[in-house]
Amino acid sequence: MQQTKQQTTQPDGAAAAQPAVLSVRDLWVEYRARRGAVQAVRGVSFDLLKGETLALIGESGSGKTTLALALMRLLARSARIRGGRVLYRRDGREVDVLSLKPGELRRFRWSECAIVFQSALNALNPVLKVWDQIFDAAAAHGMGNRQAMRRRAIELLQRVQLDAERVLRSYPHELSGGMRQRVLLAMALVLNPQILILDEPTTALDILTQRAIIDLLRELKQELGFSVLLVSHDLSLAAELADRVATMYAGRIVELGTVEEIFYQPHHPYTVGLLKAVPTLAGGFRPLESVRGSPPDLIALPPGCKFHPRCPFAEQRCLQEEPELLALDTRGSLHGHAAACWYAEVVAKAWQSEQGAQKEAGAPTGMEGEAWPPR
Amino acid sequence: MATPLIQAEHITRIFETSRGRVRAVDDVSFSVNAGEVLCLVGESGCGKTTTGKMVAGLLKPSAGRILFEGQDVWKLGGEAFRRYRRAVQIVHQDPYASLNPVHTVYDILSAPLFHHRLVRSKAQAIERIFELLQIVDLTPPADFIEKYPHQLSGGQRQRLSIARALTVNPRFIVADEPVSMVDVSIRISLLNILLRLQEQFGTGFLFITHDLAIAKYFAWRGRIGVMYLGRLVELARTPELIEEPKHPYTRALLAAIPEADPEVTRHKQRVALRSLDVPSLLRLPPGCSFHPRCPLFEAGLCDRQRPELVEIRGGREVACHVVVRQERGEPAIVGTS
């Protein structure tokens, strides 16, 4: 069953054979707070491969946004990177983003690695017309050629299905939320970056606009070949766009795998918990359950595995020792399927038998089929 | 047939804004029986929240009537109006904004109990508050009664708002996006608390959400109404609406929503819209508001006549000229261009 799923779901590109454009190694980030240090990211390592979409999924406080900001060194002043390396590669050269000088960092941002935030209104300067913001930012990056810049901007705005000339003359407030998000997407791609970080890119948007942005992203990625780091609490968005998925909990990656491995063969109890909590439209009624308990206090984390107070599989060992992200196959913990759980195999078996029981109870009716209306 | 608990009769709500008149809700009608669940779904600006506020008596309709047990609520006298306002409670989206930060859980829950003379002493209040906290799974209650809202997690705060709505033993709850600000892993427990109220106490619901998957879960034994730019465009029992949507807007929504299953979501049928732009409420298109985007658009019909919500078969209502004609097996009168 799992085999057929892997064959029929075509990932958007990326295979493990691709080189890594970004390698994050043992990254630690904390925030200073009155009660103590908020341990937002605790020893995260992963590779972002050329042309792939890697989704970081997790809930509030999982550290996913802090991690994304740290990669671009856009953290708030109360944050401190306690350790680790962020290695960026292009054309055979490698730099550690964490040791870039201010001038180099400015060049890295946007021209090598661009970010699109959730709130498109906050990311645009309200008193500047769209063209002025694009040109200002481009000039700051040493792209002084007005004509060439304008041609590139128009080309990309048209690419995201906007009336380019009109949009360039508009102020941000004159555009709708969906239009602003498309402007940001176009702006992010103006300098042809190798990496695009998307932080909850469609959360504030209406469903039909969200769909348009998703389809657009997929097309642009195919065309331009950049890599995407997608940060989201929304499992559906990951299922839609990701080649690989990393589940984050309490500042760590607790499971990593291909999108099929994460959704069809989860091995970490938190990933399982999320999958059991998400309502779906396809198929009949499916009983759902929440993960018991609340997210952890990042200032006073529990001992052992940080998920143990909420975990239905927790044993004595989980209260004492925190599990590392360990490979479940021969592809290794960075590129294969990996989980940070002492009882990963037990968790996976329990999930599979529950899924089997549900399938027998009634085959769900699919929603797939021909495009509608019929032509 | 028994009188429905809540009826909305051709309700319209107009807001005067600096840029002009906005018809946030336009001629919407539905009824909900005691103990029944009706979900209103739609995107931002569709009028679902305004409709909820009118049902809860927080906003007066500009036209049309809200009936409670068959009586026009805005014609009720003092005591009868108060009885309606107690019977119909509202739970808001944002528990941060709707709870007073300097009041403890005890203060928040005891105020309505004393105000409505549901308890006579502090001991009685505490007893009732313990009961309420147990209903919303804030247990053990003794751990919570002295806490302030900021000491609670987002999910716990929303449980507290539900407990507050329950202080006055409501028969009907308007729940406006009650889980949209809560983490995914704990949403279902909140929905299950509300569903338990329906089972145990026969509480009815007008459940408002932008998320059709949540609507499907919550209203599986009830109905879903889909709103677009102030109008109710489709109303049906939940399984029928999800499995066999009729209105082109409902079909477009269902086709567009990503699902937490890579196989399903990447092979979903698509609905090709004619335009991405949502018309402004200040300049609504003539005829059917969805016509500039609709794949079934017929010139001369959809851009001229506004479709009314009509019943196509038992309990299924849809507001679309083309769908209604097809369902009735009538031939096209106006040729498509």
Describe this structure in words.
The complex is a heterodimer of chains A (375) and B (337). Chain A is globular and about 65 Å long. Chain A is built from 15 helices and twelve strands. Chain A has helices at 2-8, 64-71, 102-111, 120-123, 130-140, 146-159, 164-168, 177-189, 207-224, 235-241, 259-264, 269-277, 316-320, 332-335, 344-361, and strands at residues 20-33, 36-49, 53-57, 79-90, 93-96, 113-116, 195-199, 227-232, 244-249, 252-258, 326-327, 338-339. In chain A, a hairpin with a 2-residue loop joins strand 9 (244-249) and strand 10. Chain A is an alpha/beta fold and 375 residues long. Chain A has an eight-stranded mixed sheet with strand order 6-7-8-3-9-10-12-11, sandwiched between helices. In chain A, strands 2-1-4-5 form a four-stranded antiparallel sheet, with helices on one face. Chain A folds into two domains: 20-242, Rossmann fold (3-Layer(aba) Sandwich), CATH 3.40.50; 267-360, no CATH class. Helices cover 37% and strands 22% of the residues of chain A. By secondary structure, chain B is α/β, with parallel strands linked by helices. Chain B is 33% helix and 22% strand. In chain B, the strands form two sheets. In chain B, strands 6-7-8-3-9-10-12-11 form an eight-stranded mixed sheet, sandwiched between helices. In chain B, helix 7 (184-201) links the parallel strand 7 (172-176) and strand 8 (204-209). In chain B, helix 4 packs across helix 5 (122-135). In chain B, 50% of the residues are buried. Chains A and B meet through helix 9, helix 10, helix 11 and helix 12 of A and helix 6, helix 7, helix 8, helix 9 and helix 10 of B.
